[in-house]
Design goal:
Number of strands: 0
Order of helices and strands: HHH
Structural class: mainly alpha
Distance between the termini: 10 Å
Number of helices: 3
Radius of gyration: 13 Å
Shape: elongated
Number of domains: 1
Helix content: 55-70%
Length: about 60
């Protein structure tokens, strides 16, 4: 599941980069920030066994 979230975020970041919406920040740094936030939100919503612990945090991640 985490792999799907990361792939989705990478694809989204590439799409945004191609449309020129990334202002002055380097694309790699911007992508790193986006992925970092997504992973953090995902970890708050999913426990170590892969069960959803917080629907809100999980929805924010996906």
């Amino acid at each position: 599941m985490l792999r799907i979230v990361l792939i989705y975020l990478i694809a989204l970041a590439i799409e945004v980069a191609e449309t020129g919406l990334l202002a002055q920040e380097h694309p790699a740094r911007r992508l790193s920030s986006i992925v970092g936030v997504a992973v953090e939100e995902y970890s708050k919503g999913i426990d170590q066994r892969g069960r959803i612990t917080s629907d809100l945090e999980y929805q924010e991640a996906v």
